[in-house]
Amino acid sequence: MLRQLHSLPGLLAALFVVLLAVTGAILSLNPALERLATVLPAAGQISVAELTGKLAKRYPETEQIVRTPSGTLIVYFTRDGQVGADRVNPQTGETIGPYEPSSFSRWVKNLHRSLLLDTPGRAIAGITALLLVTLTISGVFLLATRMGGWRQLLQPVRGTLSQRLHIEFGRVVIIGLLLSALTGVYLSAITFELISEGIEAEPELPQQVSSGIPAATNTLAALKAMDLTQLRELVYPYPNDPDGMYSLTTEQGAGYIDQVSGEWLSYQEHDATHVFYEFIYMLHTGEGLWWLGIILGLFALAIPVMAVTGPLIWWKRHSSKPKFAANSAANTADTVILVGSESNSTWGFAKTLHDNLVQAGYRVHSAPMNQLASNYRSAQRLFILSATYGDGDAPASAKQFFQRLEKIHQQPTFATAVLGFGDRQYPQFCGFAKKVEETLSAKGWPQLLPLDRINRQSPQEFARWGNAVGKALGSELTLVHIPTRPKTTTLTLAERVDYGVDVQAPTAVLRFIASENNTEINLISRLFKRSGLPPFDAGDLVGIIPPGSQVPRFYSLASASKDGILEICVRQHPNGLCSNFLCTLPIGGNIEAFIQLNPDFRPASGKAPIVLISAGTGIGPLMGFIRHNWAHHPMYLYWGGRSPQSDFLYEPELNTYLKDKRLTELNAVFSRTNDRAYVQDKISLDGEKLRKLIKSDAQILVCGGRDMANSIMTALNDILAPLDISVVTLKVQGRYREDVY
Ligand SMILES: Cc1cc2nc3c(=O)[nH]c(=O)nc-3n(C[C@H](O)[C@H](O)[C@H](O)COP(=O)(O)O)c2cc1C
């Protein structure tokens, strides 16, 4: 609901919001430019009477003096029968130049207020401001949900580039945007007379004035007592009019002044509503508060960025999920399917289940696990299909599942069946689905079927589970789902460096380029003089589909696409279909690959040190981070191999990076030398140094096998104990990240 509330007005209003933001940003410059071109007298420095005295010589026939909220002083006068208007120096009364309001500025103001369309335009501008209020408020709530609570609102952001840009910009400008949008809605409501702007003081027109010769303006008592900084407008009487009087408007009120006695004839204060209106007007336009105008104008410039990244995020989410036909509403469905997925393959399986059940006559509601409802009124069964990521962690569409589940206290009327999707190569095979099933049974939720697990998206295992579901429902259910092969790019092996054969750990650093055969990519890349590789960064993953299999194997990337190569580091496993294929691939050989973004695994920006820890091929992405460390961020590498002679991966490059300061310190240890040391041993030995680094906000990035990662965690917990923190604390702070396989 919150997401719809955010994305719908966003998409609708994107164009208008951008228009209002850009024009608003341009207009926000006006008060500051005016302020720059104006000499502002301090309060108490000069009275209105003194000013009129200074103006008298140059402008004997002054008609009116106007002082704008930004302090510009304009004199309207008659000279030789011609009317004119000049900007004057408020301290000296000297002419600065003719007053010629910029026609560009007036045009931009009209565009901002009414899109040059008069009343319908004003209405659109008002509605756009209202949509912007909805966007800012729903955006803050959405961010709090995404970050896991209000206290986490300022924590580092993870996600794709679009998501990070959208959130980072949003967090900085949100208060300013809300202020501009709310004040805009208020001004628009005033335009359409939905609320009152109050009454600008209209003093009584005096019936009687003193008779006699008018005194010189600079001698009038009321004007002598009036400070120039209070002035808004002074209208002179017609020359030689015995009934004439001065009309004076100030920030607080307005009145008439006798031209003979110089005393007030009448005076009326503005009412409170009008003072409030003027205050809001000042907040919206920055007129009279130029620095606020500039800040709000700068904030408004974030809107075009957000208007591009917002729809991009929306499009990505919508285009990558399969569309469900006949998706019943949550409270009318008899069968609910909740899906936990990161790269969407589980949605394909869910759709097959959904379609088959709909065909069998069930009313089915399918949704992400993050949308678990507190009540499914008509449901008789709930299926949960979920993948697992990291160390038994939730995939993206299930991150808020437990938070929501915690809030449900009543026993459901339906029975549940959990189906995990995972990969047996991971130590926590279907770890997240297992956690879900354990939690549901601890809560006493009835079970339709025990937990089942699907390895590597196996269609056979899924069909077998379908049979079990059919039996439980009392009808036959044939679930045939062949996972769609991800769209791949053909890459050609351009270079390889082999290591580790002597120590029974054959490992290769492989560098690929876009294949010559890929005509579509070649055309585009030739046009833009690019490598033809899909976009990726070091730390992302490449999925490679080995011949004879439909299921991709993932490898961490040691390069970024801007390097012009795709580099991975692969260890050959005796029975590994993909690793054998890759490690025996000749130069010129092709692979089919696609990119899976892994934006969580990146060095943090800023000056804090980065500690990189890995063993064996885990060095791959860390090499990428070091290679791109042109800002000379302090980087400390801990790495474990077998023998310095045989499998010291990347040794020459690492030495170069030490010399040019992209790498601060290299700690390589080997298990098949006299030292017999593993990387966790070196970590324990360096406890004091690491404590110091962590105290100075260091971030730790670990890449490698789960066993190594567990040993590192134990060693670091011992090191952190005296600081009264643990690895879990660092994880919560986003300062400990793992890429573990
Ligand atoms: C980076 C990464 C980490 C993974 N971690 C695990 C894991 O810890 N346990 C597991 O069983 N499967 C793990 N998998 C395998 C996925 O859960 C499995 O491929 C799943 O079918 C993907 O579903 P999805 O495409 O819907 O996200 C991991 C896959 C990747 C790419």
Automatic annotation (TrEMBL):
Limits of the FAD-binding FR-type domain: 486-604
Phylogenetic lineage: Bacteria, Pseudomonadati, Pseudomonadota, Gammaproteobacteria, Pseudomonadales
Stored CDD domains: SiR_like2
InterPro entries, per the entry: FAD-bd_FR_type, Flavodoxin/NO_synth, Flavoprot_Pyr_Nucl_cyt_Rdtase, Flavoprotein-like_sf, FNR_nucleotide-bd, OxRdtase_FAD/NAD-bd, PepSY-ass_TM, Riboflavin_synthase-like_b-brl
Membrane keyword on record: yes
Source superkingdom: Bacteria
Keyword Signal in record: no
PANTHER family in alphabetical order: NITRIC OXIDE SYNTHASE-RELATED
Domain Flavodoxin-like, first and last residues per copy: 335-470
Pfam family, one: NAD_binding_1
Residue intervals passing through the bilayer: 123-144, 289-315
Organism: Thiopseudomonas acetoxidans
The name this protein goes by in its record: PepSY domain-containing protein
Keywords, comma-separated and alphabetical: Flavoprotein, FMN, Membrane, Transmembrane, Transmembrane helix
